[in-house]
Amino acid sequence: MDDTSPEIQKIIIAGYRQMSPQQKLKRVDELTKAVQQLALARIYKRHGNISDREAQLRLASLWLDRETMLRVFNWDVQEHGY
Fold first, then answer.
1. Mapped to the 3 state alphabet, what secondary structure does the chain carry?
2. Cα 28 from Cα 41, distance rounded (Å)
3. pTM more than 0.85
């Protein structure tokens, strides 16, 4: 469902086209960090008083496959969940 009018979409696209590559990368970085903060909030809400390390592992498990989590962090998503 699209909740943005075509006129506003044109303005947004024009703004993105005027941005330098560095500005676009900065925007992507900011949005990625915002999504990660929302995910961390959900993780803390779901799991309560967990360590920062555990929260970061659970966050990483949302992006990385099970094999990578096991190999790099010794964290089994099937055992611990996200």
1. CCCCCHHHHHHHHHHHHHCCHHHHHHHHHHHHHHHHHHHHHHHHHHHCCCCHHHHHHHHHHHHCCHHHHHHHHCCCHHHHCC
2. 20
3. no
State the burial class of residue 47 (Cβ atoms within 10 Å of its Cβ: 0-12, 13-18, 19+): middle
Taking only the tens place, the pLDDT of each residue in 46-79 is: 998 999 999 999 999 999 999 999 999 999 988 8
Instruction: Give the C-alpha distances (Å, rounded to integers) separating 62 from 39, 46, 56, 59, 69.
Output: 9, 14, 10, 5, 10
